[in-house]
Amino acid sequence: MSSYRVGLLVPSSNTTMETEVPEVLRRVAAETGDRFTFHSSRMRMKTVSAEELAAMNADADRAAIELADAAVDVMAYACLVAIMSQGRGAHRDIEKRLTQTAADAGAPVHVVSSAGALVAGLHHMGARKVSLVTPYLKPLTALVVDYIEGEGIEVQDAISLEVDDNLAVGRVDQSQLPDIAGRLDTRGADAVVLSACVQMPSLQAIPAAEAIVNLPVITASTATSWQLLSALGAHTPVPDSGALFKG
Length: 247
Description:
The chain is α/β, with parallel strands linked by helices. The protein is built from 10 helices and 8 strands.
């Protein structure tokens, strides 16, 4: 039995990552007896626009330094679109930069990101073609699609819910997501990304969505949870948490 401090870098208006990631890790703790505590630092962002996302990325170093002071064991930059909107492969540069920033602050720590976690999770599952749901306006969804395809994964179909206020994204009724996923074109797809956004709630909708699409389901928050646990060497299968947590 081990104890871990998990650090999250989140947008100031995010209301979901600090509930869904702890819930997944609570499920893991119930199986393993491990203990997790959660510590966050916030970066200003209210509207999901290119300008605010770029400003948040610029502010990430300050947030990482503050979070490093808590001596966390692992840190996640928990905003997928902020990274993917910067162009293909951006998660590698940002993860490397923030890892160096934390080390320079005297706290060497592995920094992962939701963007990198989603891509890594899909590769881990062997998914070569996916369909996905996003809350974004269509131009931002197009950037996410291009980013994922730049990592060698074809996107068969994407549904944009076209919500640009980040607080409103956090209020999306996740009970509607399984039916929305059912409208996706999944012909030939290997998996469905039920929420390509860490702010859009989706965890409780995963079992119903899997039953409707008859495919493995992954979300930005479950992928982030999976990569955090993998970095800690603390991953274990748990029920109702998506494809990355199957036995």
